[in-house]
Amino acid sequence: MADIDHTLLPICSVDGVLLTIEDETLKVLLHLRPNAPCEGMWALPGGFVHKNEDNSLQAAMARVLKAKVKIPGLYLEQLASYGGPNRDPRGWSVSVAHLGVFARKALPLKAESEDIKLFPVSRLPKCAFDHRTIIKDAVKRLRGKGAYSVLPTKFLGDTFTLYEACKVYEHVLGEEIAPGNFRRKILALDVLEPTGEMSVGGRKRPAELYRLKSPKEAVVFDRGVGSL
Amino acid sequence: MADIDHTLLPICSVDGVLLTIEDETLKVLLHLRPNAPCEGMWALPGGFVHKNEDNSLQAAMARVLKAKVKIPGLYLEQLASYGGPNRDPRGWSVSVAHLGVFARKALPLKAESEDIKLFPVSRLPKCAFDHRTIIKDAVKRLRGKGAYSVLPTKFLGDTFTLYEACKVYEHVLGEEIAPGNFRRKILALDVLEPTGEMSVGGRKRPAELYRLKSPKEAVVFDRGVGSL
DNA sequence: TAAATAGTGTCTATCAGACATTATCTG
DNA sequence: CAGATAATGTCTGATAGACACTATTTA
Questions:
Q1: What is the predicted pLDDT for the residue at B125?
Q2: Contact residues, chain B, for A1 at CB < 8 Å
Q3: Do A56 and B84 touch (CB under 8 A)?
């Protein structure tokens, strides 16, 4: 077995761009860094890979997030990796960034505090490292993939009405969608199934509740869902 | 500045899945590993990030490739990162994989030798590490992105006829495309421009040569290019 | 001229998107 | 009832895909 000079290795971490929709606005979860480097700046939740604990990059990301902010039902996928000599003052570093999508109501109220906050992606604070770039890339991925996959439904709970889904797609794609057309198209794609239950407590007429057929994956379709 | 315990860091490397089309077949470039680990097995060209030489992950990939196989006009984009405790016998490792696409004729003849060969992606040899998985993912990306971008044209030289482009899209998508429809659609997308030159030495009627309008990027369109 | 590609035209089923209509709930 | 959403129906323009046709080259 070859011997590795560990002083030559770059730093390796995982970071998560956790997105949700609150007040009709796409927001990202950031935390205030308590320690150097970048102490007192807002940053993506992240941390080093732990060789003795983690079995994969995704597992490392999940462990880090579980420690900082517990979000039940969080959807995670790998986004991209960022590396360079200057992005972290501690030296040459690689960050494997992940895109997370969750329903606002899945975030425990106590999670939001002085040092953990949701920021609109269009009004980001000064961010640590190159996290602003990573967030921009994550939003780009979300919008790009949004029109062609069920990814936006991850902003909703386990069950949702078609009207709620339509509104979420509108916020992701940034354009109005005719609810009638949306209903026809999303049902034709055959990725949702009715639960049999009806929405309760809605302000108006109750609607059928639907759920994803394959809740774990973010199914991609051939055609879009848009409709100006 | 915080101090880093370098013995805790995973190994970090870059690997390239370099694809081309030869004899109407999608092939990947592999090299025979001369040293441990996995000595004598076929592997993706790759290597460690060099902290004092590389300014980014893409730069590291380019440097490694330039040393192992010079391919003028090679198109490179990041694919995904793979990490885990067992994929490399030397320990917990991260590989930032890249997808490369090149024209067969751009590969110097001397490059292909005993220890560097092209293999059909459908008939891979026993591969080192998890490189087989990475190759499969790269092909999946190529096929997925192929129908909606100019990525397949990177298999061609700087200039090409529409018929050649049509054939390349056929090989990437794995289905026949009506040349007439392909012509109409690819021209309507406004991503190509005529050079004014005509193809020479072709077996039949000469055709107009086209080139990419933005040769550096892999433009993505809204609609597909397919046509059974 | 036969074969193959270059290049253009045409037809049709399908679908995206616009919009209308009816139904059903709450306040 | 008024207002809002639920759910379905209808119409039209655009286009993907099939296919026919002519043109131009080489063998």
A1: 97
A2: 36-37, 89-90
A3: yes
